[in-house]
Amino acid sequence: MTLFFLLLSSYLIGAIPTGVILTRLVGGEDVRNAGSGNIGATNVYRVAGRTLGILTLVGDCLKGLLRVLLANSYFNLTPTHTALVALAAFLGHCYPVYLGFKGGKGVATALGIFLVLSPLAVLCALVIFIAVLYCWRFISLASISAAAAVPLLVLLLEGYNPLFAATLIIAGIVIWRHRANIERLRSGTENRFNL
Fold it and tell me: Which is nearest to 140 in space by CA: 112, 180, 103, 95?
């Protein structure tokens, strides 16, 4: 029963649409109807400005970070249960019940999760993200590259455990949800990121 509650609450917290809420609070347009239509930080940044974009990034990251951190702090979770809680929060962001199961791509929420579960892997993936972004200026390509690297980094740093399995699933979903970006990258129509 406790595990069911943890998974359900993790999903519902992960499903909170940070970008949609923030843009509505300031009277801006619904980010789902502007730019790429995505609810994540990159689209909020482009549609509503730098401040809201950064706040969305932080909010989406905290959904994963705080949920896993609090669950581990207050419950005696096995590694498998911890991985399931992480997956539930991540799936909440990608498929939120509040928005008809149409959510973000999960990069920031995954970042928060892995900051708790494998901070060194996050640091290495961040280096990859920054290097790819600096060289090519595509947020999508940087996100895909970092997501693809995380399972290998976790395997090397943490060993084979339930976290590795969860990482594979999360990375696979992140890359899958970038499939439109991949097509635009291939066709040369993807938007470059400019500060």
Answer: 180
